[in-house]
Amino acid sequence: GVSGLVVALGFATVKTTLGAWVFMHLSHQPLSSRLALVAGVLLAVLLITLVVGDVALRDDLGVRVPPVGR
Prior knowledge:
Elements: H1 2-23, H2 31-57
C-alpha cells in the first residue's frame, strides 16, 4: 500500500545519498560542488511535483481511450 511506497522511497533516497557521498567523493569536494548537487536535486523534485500536481488537478478533457483487445 501507501506505507510500502513511502518505505521504498525512503530506502531509495538513503541508497542514492550514500552512493553519491561515497562514489562521487562528495566528502572531499568543496561546498560549491555539494550545493550544485543539492540545487539539481531540488529542481528535479520541483519539476516532478509540478507534473504530478498538473495531472492530479486536471479536469476530464473528454478523451476516451478505446478498450484493448477488440
